[in-house]
Amino acid sequence: MQVTETLAEGLKRELKVVIPAKDMEARMNERLADAKDKVRINGFRPGKVPVGHLKKMYGKSIMAELVNEIVRDQPGQILSERGEKSATQPEIAMTEDEAEADKILNAQADFEFTVAYEVIPPIELKDASGITVTREVVEVSEDEVNEQIEKVAESARTYETKKGKAADGDRVTIDYLGKVDGEAFDGGKDEDSELVIGSNRFIPGFEEQLVGVKAGDEKVITVTFPAEYPAANLAGKEATFDITVKDVAAPGKIELNDELATTLGLESLDKLKEVVRSQIESQYGNATRQKVKRQILDQLDTMYQFEAPSKLVDAEFENIWRQINTDLAQSGKTFEDEETTEEEARDEYRKLAERRVRLGLVLSEIGEKAKVEVSEDEMQRALFAQLQQFPGQQKEILDYFRNTPGASASLRAPIFEEKVIDHLLSEVSVTDKTVTKDELFADEDGEGDADKPAKKKAAPKKKAAAKADETADAAEGDGKAAPKKKAAPKKKKADEADAE
């Protein structure tokens, strides 16, 4: 076998591989000799079938098997011998001329094919001890725990029908029909809808106009949908709602005691506080980790500047761009609405894709040198988490991961990445800093991101084209579009993305 490098341009490589016809024929003859004692052909005793006859009957099919095996296995062996790693699956090209292919299968011509690929650039790891990060820590107070318990207890709050007018905090049961320009719109109708006045579930101005209504009242209220409302046909429009009040109920008092804990499935108030405190600490801990991780990735990005394989960058960019355009379509917005242009957005997201790929390669190299491994137990837990997200589809999910090449990598990659970050945290300089909740959840633009872990999406340079990982739904929970309140997608910094 002869291997000739025909292209070495940047990270791009192309090899020409030639296997002489005589070598192909020798391989075929080995297969025929092995098959001689196994095949059963009428007119011949077992093991006495002439090789020439076998070649006439099975030669071309065996050669076809050999060709398939060579193009499947040989490129990997060749790259290994060259000390190279391909960024993606190498592209194999061979003759498409039927006559030439027939000659190869008859061992009358050399078998030639080309292997085109991009190499993963060599990465010389640098000392990570110079990386410094600030770990922001929030101390959870007793008042905060109690406040959260009161919010949780709202789900267990009871209401009793009352006579008289509805006040702030009362629950009203209403039928409503929404109209724009006198015409009812989709999703603007509901019956027996329960709404706690002051809960801010509906669009601004809706709930306030229910203060003072009584059971049996009929009323028309007028509101204006927010300009950033996700349903484009309603955004910024004035609407009326025909309201029929069916019931007004006053809230029961919430007391923080063991009885409350029991209604929530816990044995005591102390246990409830313990659980709630743990949840708050976990929430803060996740936000803290994301900020620490962001700092590490930012500094790694500065430390490692090299050309990233273009095919990996292209694939990453397409994933991002597809999500961005989906979000824009769902929000009814354009790039101009977000104070940018498609060209500028493409440029910014392309940079993000390059950053992700480059950091992904760096983290992979760091993890490999540190012998970071993902255990089978960790993979099983990740798979179980996937199954929980799709109840009733467990079989389909399992079949997907069993039968789809590379699917398991989507489970392994985030686990591996987090373990590499853990490894780096043991090497970098970490300084703890006590901060407030607002400081922890504020990004560099001053926007709070409470309850939102850092995700793998970015914003255009001027403003978010759409927050790619926070799609705005048209309704909350019950599929009703009209009076539900929704926030505009927020922007997220381009470099807030994790590396893959």
From TrEMBL:
Region named Disordered: 441-500
Listed EC numbers: 5.2.1.8
Keyword Cytoplasm in annotation: yes
Keyword Cytoplasm: yes
One Pfam assignment: Trigger_C
Secretion signal span: none
InterPro entries: PPIase_dom_sf, PPIase_FKBP_dom, Trig_fac, Trigger_fac_C, Trigger_fac_C_sf, Trigger_fac_ribosome-bd_bac, Trigger_fac_ribosome-bd_sf, Trigger_fact/SurA_dom_sf
Superkingdom, taxonomy of origin: Bacteria
Extent of Basic residues compositional bias: 454-465, 482-492
Purpose of the protein: Involved in protein export. Acts as a chaperone by maintaining the newly synthesized protein in an open conformation. Functions as a peptidyl-prolyl cis-trans isomerase.
Protein name: Trigger factor
Organism: Rhizobium halophytocola
The encoding gene: tig
